[in-house]
Amino acid sequence: MSDPATLRARAEGLAEALPPLLADAEHLAQAVILGEHGRRRAGLGDEFWQYRPAHAGDEARMIDWRRSARSDAHFVREKEWQAAQSVLIWVDDSASMGFSGDKTHPTKAERARVLALAVAVLLTRGGERVGLSGTGLPPRRGPLQLLRMAEVLSGAQGTADYGAPDARGMAPHSRAVFLSDFLGDLAPVEKALTEAADRDIKGALVQVLDPAEEAFPYDGRTIFESMGGSLRHETLKAGDLRGRYLARLAERKARLADLARATGWHYSTHHTGEGAQGALLWLYRALERVR
């Protein structure tokens, strides 16, 4: 297992090439934690941003009468939005995530952890509060929080065969990231996304898979065993299972994509045989699109 300092260094290196990620805070009124970094959007704050023409529905107290006196129109004085959005990240620590089909590839768990911390680096650079779901590590800002996250993510692997996200503890209107192989029962995933949607929590699902799980390169006599050891299947003709396996995997991906669309989330698959930069860039763009 990587030590916290090494994990953080890898994550910061991965994040270095990208601009700071500013999590979306469209629903500021009910969700925000005030921060110190202006976002050049209208909202709560102390710094003047711009004047805009008054619109129907604006209250009289919002109008800047001194500025309006210099023209024939009424103007509203807007201030910068200085709200730091709370973002919770769930990283699957189940036994299934410890799989790697090639010694040259990282395990799914290693890749998910680096991606999680890299996203946290980008978020904290933008003044955001980040935390880890299901670990007792609530959203906070700053370098110390990154170190705390690295320590938690460097902990021992879980013993359950498959993991399940938990939407409890997530603030209404906040943002979240779920990283997992999503190869277990999808009912808990659907439950978590439904609960999140009920509280207007949106975010991104990243399904981390090993290339062997995508290609099913097995033939002849093969013994399949879950990483936790609770499931075992032996066959003399593994190649005969390939078509059915790939069909079921495609169905699972389609269901995850449908769940994401229905709840306002974004979904993508990442393979450990690929570089992590593309997945991080996708997360950056996905969180920007979340409204």
Describe the structure.
β8, α6 and β9 form a beta-alpha-beta unit. The protein has 9 helices and 12 strands. The protein has helices spanning 4-15, 28-31, 65-68, 108-125, 143-153, 187-198, 211-215, 242-263, 276-289, and strands at residues 33-34, 48-53, 75-79, 83-84, 86-91, 129-132, 137-140, 175-180, 202-209, 222-225, 232-235, 266-271. The two termini are 36 Å apart. The protein folds into 2 domains: 4-27 and 84-289, Rossmann fold; 46-79, no CATH class. The model is unreliable at 17-46 and 80-84 (pLDDT under 50). 35% of the residues lie in helices and 20% in strands. The strands form 4 sheets. Strands 7-6-5-8-9-12 form a 6-stranded mixed sheet, with helices on both faces. The longest helix has 22 residues, at 242-263. It is elongated, with a radius of gyration of 22 Å. With 291 residues, the chain is of the alpha/beta class. α1 (4-15) crosses α4 and α1 crosses α5 (143-153). Residues 50-250 form the DUF58 domain. Pfam families: DUF58.
Approximately how much helix is present in the residues?
A: 25-40%
Distance between the termini: 36 Å
Number of helices: 9
The oligomeric state is single chain
Order of helices and strands: HHEEHEEEHEEHEHEHEEHEH
Shape summary: elongated
CATH topology of the largest domain: Rossmann fold
* Whole-number tally of structural domains: 2
Sheet of most strands: 6 strands, mixed
Average pLDDT for all residues: 77
Q: Tell me the fraction of residues in β-strands, as a range.
A: 15-25%
Give unreliable regions as ranges. Answer: 17-46, 80-84
CATH class membership of the largest domain: Alpha Beta
* Beta strand count: 12
